[in-house]
Amino acid sequence: MTQAENNAVMYEVKDGVAKLVMQSAPVNALSRALRMGLIDGVTNALQDDSVSTIVITSSLPIFSGGADISEFSGGDLSPMLPEVLDKIEHASKPVVAVLPGPAFGGGLELALACHHRITFASNKVGLPEVNLGILPGAGGTQRLPRLVDAQTALTMIVTGKPTPVTKLPGVFDKISETPESLLADTRDYLSSLNGSNAIKRTCDITLSMDEKTQAVFDAVTQQTQKTTKGFYAPLKCIEAVRGAYTLAFEDGLKNESKLFLACMATPQARAQQHFFFAERAAGHVNDFDKSTPERAINRVAIIGAGTMGGGIAMNFANAGIPVTLLELKEEALEKGLALIRKNYENSAKKGKLTQAQVEARMSLLSGTTAYEDLADVDLVIEAVFEKMEVKKAVFSTLDSVCKPGAILASNTSTLDIDEIATATSRPEDVIGLHFFSPANVMKLLEVVKAEKTAPDVIKTCMKMAKKIRKVAVLVGVCFGFVGNRMIEPYGREANRLLLEGASPEQVDRVLTEFGMPMGPFTMGDMAGLDIGYYVRQSRQEHISHDPAYGAVADRLVEMGRNGLKSGRGAYQYEPGSRVPIPDPEVLDIAKKEAHRLGVKQRSDISDEEILVRVMFTLINEGACILEEGIAAKSSDIDVIYVYGYGFPVYRGGPMQYADEVGLGTILDKLVTYRDQLGDYGDMWLQPSDLLISLAKDGGTFKHYQK
Ligand code: 3H9
Q1: CA distances from 250 to 135, 148, 245, 256 (A)
Q2: 664 in a domain, yes or no?
Q3: Which residue minimizes the CA distance to atom 10 of ligand 1?
Q4: Strand, helix or coil at 311?
Q5: Ligand 1 lined by 26 (C-beta under 6 Å)
Q6: 3-hydroxyacyl-CoA dehydrogenase NAD binding domain location, by residue (predicted)?
Q7: Order of strands, edge to edge, in the sheet holding 471-475?
C-alpha cells in the first residue's frame, strides 16, 4: 500500500507544521493501514526541510480506540505498533499529539510516544487492554509510569478503567478548558516550542524502585489477587509495570513484549477478545435495517411496583425518561416508590449520586392505580405475577387503554409471548423485555420477538436498551427464552448429582472453581427453591416424566426449606446471614429419595464428572437453542450468560468455552457419561443433533449459521 492509496491518515503541511490526521472511522483503530500512514507521514515530515514540527491528531470525535483488535487473529502486521512508536519517539523534530477525544490502549500509547500532548479538560484516556486478556504491548507499561506516580499507572493498567485527563497532569503538557479552545491553544503551544525543550522523550526519564514504590506494588498486587481471581492478565500487567522501575527502558520494553505475547497466547485472551466483539455483534440483527423507522419513547409505564417493576423503572428515570408505575392498591404503590427512593438514597450514601440527582430522578417517577392514566405512554412494561392468566388480563386492559402505536411489553422470564399477544388486538406491538434481577443493576436485557412483533418495535426496543445502558440480545420465543431455558438442565443435572450422592458444596465448589460467581445450589437458595417447584408443578405436561426429576428439590420445598429467605434450603443459614452452611440433613433427604426411587448412590463422583454433567449439559441446551434459531448466533448466548448469569468472561461464555475445549471433546465426554450411567431419565445427557454434526465435521458454534 502506498501513501497515495492510504486514506487512513491525511497528511498536510502548513506554516512549518506537518499535520498527520487519523481519519479511520469509527474509532481510528490502529490497523496496518493507519500504522503505515503514520510511518510514512513522519518519514515525509522528517525529510521535508520546510517542516519544523509534527502534529498527530484525529478528524474523528475520538483520538484512537487503540490497536485493531480484529487484526489479532493474524495476517501481515508489519509495521508493528512498537516499531511505529519508536520511530515517533526518536524523531529529530518535535512531535505533538493533539487529542480531540479519548485515547485508549495503543491510542494512548501513541500519544505517550510523542514528545508533547495536548487535550481538553473533560476528556478521558485509558489502557483497557486487560479487559481483552492482554496488557499494553506498545510501551504503555513503560512510558505511563515515567509520567505519573506508580499508584496511578498501576491502577490504570490493572483495572483498565478510563481516567479523566485532569487527573493526569504529568501526561498532558496543556489541557484546554473546552474542546472549542483546543485549536487556539494548540496554535499557541506550537509557537512556544523551541530550543532544548522542544523534544522531550519519555524514554529518557529514569525510574527506580524505592521503598515507597515497592509498598505500592505490594498493596496493588494483594488487592489484584483478591479482586481478579481466575484472570491471567492482571498480574502480568503488574509484572510488566515493575520492569519500568527495575530495568533500563529498552529492556523494560522487551519484558513487556514477552509478557504481552504470553497473555496473547492464552485461551483467556481469545475469550475476552471474542466477548468484545460478541457484545457489539448482539446489536447487529437481521430483523430490521437502516430504513426501518423507530418509535419515539418519551413516556414509559411499568405495571407492578414490586422489586422487579421498581428496578425497571429506575433504568428509565436514570436515563431521564419519565415513568409511571401502576399498582392496583395505593399501599403497594407507595411501598414501591419508597423502595426506589431507598435504593437511590443508598447510592447517595455511597457517594455514587448527589442528593440533587436523587431528587431529579424521583421527580421523573409517578404512581397511579388507574389504567386510564396510561393512555399517553409510548411503552408499557408489565412486571406482574408470573402466571399466564394474570398477564393476559393485564394485556387485554392495556389494549383497551393505550394509544395506537404504544409498545406493549412483558417482562416475563418464561411465558409464551405469542400467547400473551393474543389477549390484544395488536400483536404487532407486543414484545418481551426480559430484565434480570436486580433490574437496575444487571446489564442484560433479553428482547423477545414474538411471531407477529413488528420490525420497528424490535428496532425501537434494541435502540432503547442502549439509552438505558443495557446490553440487549434479541431472542425468540420458547419456555425460558435463552437464559432460563439453559439454566434448567444445568440445575436439573446438579440435582440429579445430589440424588446420586454428591453434596451441594462439592457441586458448588466445582462450578465456582470453574469461575461461576456461585454454584447452582447457592443460586437456587438465593432465588428461592419454591420458584423452581412452582414451575415444575405448573409445567407437569411439558417436563420429564422421570420421577427422579427435581425429587430432592421438591422434598426440600415441601419441608418448608425454600432457600435463603426461610433460613434453610440446600444449605442452612444463620439468622441474618447469607453464608451457606452445609447441612447433613440435606444429604439424608437425598439418600432417602435415592432409596425410594431406586437410584444407586455413589461415593466416587469426581469433580470432572460434575463439570461435564452440569456445564456440558448447559452447552448442549445452548446448541439446541442455536439449532432452533431461538438465538441467532452463538455469541448472543455468550453475552446472555456473561451478563445475565455471571459466566466468567475469561472463558468468553459457554459457547466460546465449548469451541475452545473442542466440540469433539464435549460430545465424547457427554456420551461417555451417558453410556456409563445408562438411561436415567428422558433424554438426559442426550447430545443435540447440532453438537453431533459440528463435532463430526470439526466445526465450531462460532462459525455455525442456520
Ligand atoms: C491494544 O491497543 C493493544 C496495544 O496495547 C498493543 C498492540 C501491539 N479494534 O464500542 P463501539 C469497533 S488493544 C477494532 O460500538 P463506542 C467496534 O467493534 C485495544 N475495532 O463504539 C464497533 O464495530 P461495529 C485497546 C474496534 O463509541 C465500532 O468500532 N483498546 C476497536 O460505544 C464502534 O465501537 C480497547 O480495548 C478496536 N480497538 O465506543 C478499546 N474499538 O460497529 C476498545 C472499537 O462493527 N474499544 N471497534 O460493531 C472501546 O472500548 C470502544 O469501542 C470505544 C468506542 C470506547 C473506543
Answers
A1: 17, 19, 12, 10
A2: yes
A3: 280
A4: helix
A5: yes
A6: 300-476
A7: 365-368, 323-326, 300-303, 379-382, 407-410, 430-435, 444-448, 471-475
Show Cβ contacts of residue 11 under 8 Å, excluding neighbours closer than 6 positions: 3, 18, 19, 20, 21, 37, 40, 41, 44
* DSSP string covering 668-698: HHHHHHHHHH---STTTT---HHHHHHHHHT
Which CATH number do you get for residue 642? 1.10.1040.50
Question: What is the percentage of the chain residues whose pLDDT exceeds 70?
Answer: 98
- For the segment 253-307, what is each residue's pLDDT rounded down to a tens digit? 999 999 999 999 999 999 999 999 999 999 999 999 999 999 999 999 999 999 9
Ranges assigned E (strand) in 193-314? 300-303
Number of structural domains found in the chain: 4
Residue 137 CA to ligand 1 center (angstroms) comes to: 16
pLDDT tens sequence across 48-103: 999 999 999 999 999 999 999 999 987 778 999 999 999 999 999 999 999 999 99
Q: Rounded to whole angstroms, what are the CA distances from 610 to 406, 484, 553, 680?
A: 48, 20, 18, 16
One domain, residues 491 and 591: yes
Tell me the residue type at 585. E
617-628 and 663-677 helices, crossing angle to 10°: 120
- The finding on whether 132 has its CB within 6 A of some atom of ligand 1 is yes
The closest-lying atom of ligand 1 relative to the alpha carbon of residue 67 is 2
Low-confidence ranges of the chain (pLDDT < 70): 1-6, 679-683
| Residue 83 falls in the annotated catalytic set | no
Closest CA to 469 of 448, 447, 440: 440
Q: How many angstroms separate the alpha carbon of residue 517 from the centre of ligand 1?
A: 27
Please state the atom number of ligand 1 nearest to the C-alpha of residue 284: 48
Q: Is the CB of 256 under 6 A from ligand 1?
A: no
State the residue for C-alpha cell 449439559: 617
Mean residue pLDDT of the chain comes to 95
Q: What pLDDT, on a 0 to 100 scale, did the predictor assign at position 197?
A: 78
- The verdict on the CB of residue 29 being under 6 Å from ligand 1 is yes
In a domain, 339, yes or no: yes
The reply to whether 73 and 183 lie within a common domain is yes
Angle, CA 370 vertex, CA 366 and CA 376 arms, to 5°: 70
Ligand 1 centroid–CA 77 distance in Å is 18
ipTM above 0.95, yes or no: yes
Catalytic residue among 89, 109, 382, 488: 109
Q: CA dist 311 to 354, 430, 464, Å? A: 19, 21, 16
- Residues listed for the chain: 706
279 Cβ below 6 A of ligand 1: no
* Residue of minimum CA distance from atom 42 in ligand 1: 280
Q: Please give the Cα distance from 62 to 44 (Å, whole number).
A: 25
Q: Which residues of 527-542 are buried (b: 16+ CB within 10 A; e: fewer)?
A: bbbbebbebbeeeeee
Does the beta carbon of 81 sit less than 6 angstroms from any atom of ligand 1? yes
* CA-proximal residue: ligand 1, atom 22 (nearest): 280
Contact assessment for residue 141 and residue 156, using Cβ atoms and an 8 Å cutoff: no
Q: Are residues 15 and 68 in the same domain?
A: yes
